[in-house]
Amino acid sequence: MSANPLAPAWLRVPADANELAPGVWSRGASRSNSGVLEIAGLPVDTIVARYGTPVFVVDEADARGRALEARESFDREFARVGSAARVYYAGKAFLTTEVARWMIAAGLNIDVCSGGELAVALAAGVDPARLGLHGNNKSVAEIERAVSVGIGAIVIDSPIEIERVAAAAAKHSRVQHVRLRINSGVHASTHEYLATAREDQKFGIPLADAEATVASIRSHPELDFLGLHSHIGSQIFDTDGFVEAARRLFAVHARLLKTGPVPELNLGGGFGIAYTSVDVAPSIDDIARRFADIVAAAAAEFDVPVPVVAVEPGRAIIGPSTATVYEVGTVKDVLVSVGPAAEQATAVRKYVSIDGGMSDNIRPALYGADYSVRIASRVSTAEPALVRIAGKHCESGDIVVYADYLPGDVRPGDLVAVPATGAYCWSLANNYNYLGRPAVVAVKDGSAHLLVRRETEADLLSRDAGINTPSETS
After folding, report:
1. For labeling, which of 145, 233, 368, 403 is most exposed (least CB within 10 Å)?
2. Which residues are CB-neighbours of 133 under 8 A, at least 6 positions away?
3. Which phi and psi angles does 95 have, rounded to 5°?
4. 3-class DSSP state for residue 18?
5. Residue 231 near residue 196, CB atoms below 8 Å
6. In Å, what is the CA distance from 172 to each residue of 150, 226, 424?
7. pLDDT (tens digit, 9 = 90+) per residue, 390-445?
8. Segment 244-276, tens digit of pLDDT
């Protein structure tokens, strides 16, 4: 079958539109003998019968396994180069109390970037010493709380925060560990909104100001400087950006060692995952090995000891573990003109509308992110058809999957599943058009349990102060 001319150049027509692409789905995803998608041994139609749709389904063993692999890989590779590593799970990707406990059980620390995320980690019973606090505009209240509970480290993002953290530490009679976030100027090969080390953006301080800012930190006895911090972006597949960022940071790191201790270097996260069948993402083993080699080479170049290195994977751990299951509501074929005006032709794009959308996955609207989709409740021998998975919101940009192939007989009532939705989907979820946010369900060894319950209309209305309040009339 030839490709639909409306399909993007990278999208291939599948030999089997029911196949689950390896590397895109969780390790526990498969099809039963009847063709129903199973996650960790549990059919998704069973999950839907209990929890409804849309629903985020987390393969617990997959998430836990990736967390453990990250810790073991970085431990092993940095021991190889004569140092050690600290792995922080980036809670902004997806955080619940139970997920926090999974990460701690795997030996990871957790990075939080708001008072709310801190509250979740503390509610999970996480030792505050295992937490780090990020953020370009941490409030005085957030800093106060973090210091008061004994947070492991705070990342200084601007000079004004030095005084704020020092004051909180003095108030609580603590010496607070801090890192300094540096804007290295390295341009990660990612979407403009995901590149976080460009010169003209809100995070960190310029590399040229690093030494003076560290001197200011060191002038406060209430602060203990751990080292520099860098984060060059998200959804990164190659290591070229990390190589250059490490070299630039090590030049400053080496100079700082002449005036005081610099026990560690934090290179951030941003490791990419596969969202489509053509994506080839590096394994966590590969990432750890490359990082160890990068850091060892930079240390040798500047003739300094290899420091302890901290990293902050989030998407790479939780992203592939989760799929979102929806129910199809409407299907319609749209005839689209293609080709130059003189040779105008038409092609069909099949719009498949689901019962969720940009309220549970806003990434395609924000970043133009590509996702995959498969029918989850059955298999079909129908010829593949180019589909666009559209949400139910009153917004033309409400698209969850821009382009993929499904069996051409996809119909109302089918369950469809979108893989690799663990990172930044539930965490960015919203109530546009007053839709409640979906439930989050963990599945392990053929059984499911609730991580976060579905948001109801009653939940939404409970915050409306006008209910049961007489309105003023003229």
Report:
1. 368
2. 111, 112, 113, 118, 142, 143, 146, 151, 153, 154, 155
3. -140, 125
4. coil
5. yes
6. 9, 20, 35
7. 999 999 999 999 999 999 999 999 999 999 999 999 999 999 999 999 999 999 99
8. 888 889 999 999 999 999 999 998 888 899 999
**Burial profile 230-246: b = 16 or more Cβ within 10 angstroms, e = fewer:** bbbbbbbeebebbbbbb
**The two three-digit tokens of residue 418, written as one number:** 């979108």
Range 141-147, long-range pairs (CB < 8 A, 24+ positions): 141/115, 142/114, 142/115, 142/118, 143/168, 144/168, 144/171, 145/115, 145/118, 146/118, 147/171, 147/172, 147/174, 147/176
User: Alpha-carbon distance 28 to 47, whole Å?
Assistant: 15
> Which residue in 104, 157, 94, 161 sits closest to 128, CA to CA?
104
Handedness of CA 457, 462, 463, 465 (dihedral sign): positive
User: Phi and psi (nearest 5°) for 346?
Assistant: -130, 155
Going by the DSSP 8-state scheme, the letter that residue 440 receives in this structure is E
Q: Token match 């799929």: residue?
A: 323
Rg of the chain over Cα atoms, rounded to whole angstroms, equals 24
Q: Which residues does 10 contact at the CB level (< 8 Å), separation at least 6?
A: 276, 278
**pLDDT score, position 199:** 62
Tokens coding 167: 């004051």
Domains recognised in the chain with CATH numbers: 29-59+320-461 (2.40.37.10), 61-317 (3.20.20.10)
Q: Which two tokens stand for residue 234?
A: 């998200």
Residue 394 falls in the annotated catalytic set: yes
The C-alpha atoms of residue 144 and residue 167 are separated, in whole angstroms, by 9
Instruction: Evaluate whether 325 touches 438 at the Cβ level (below 8 Å).
Output: no
- Cα distances (angstroms) measured from residue 174 to each of 20, 168, 261: 52, 8, 19
Residue-by-residue DSSP string for 80-125: HTT--EEEEEEGGG---HHHHHHHHHTT-EEEE-SHHHHHHHHHTT
Beta pairing partners, 308: 264
- Given 15, 280, 394, 467, which residue is catalytic? 394
| Residue positions counted in the chain | 474
Distance CA 5, CA 364 (A): 21
Query: Among 240, 284, 245, which Cα is nearest to 85's?
Result: 284
Q: In this model, does residue 110 exceed pLDDT 60?
A: yes
Distance CA 206, CA 192 (A): 19
Q: Decide if pLDDT at 195 tops 70.
A: no
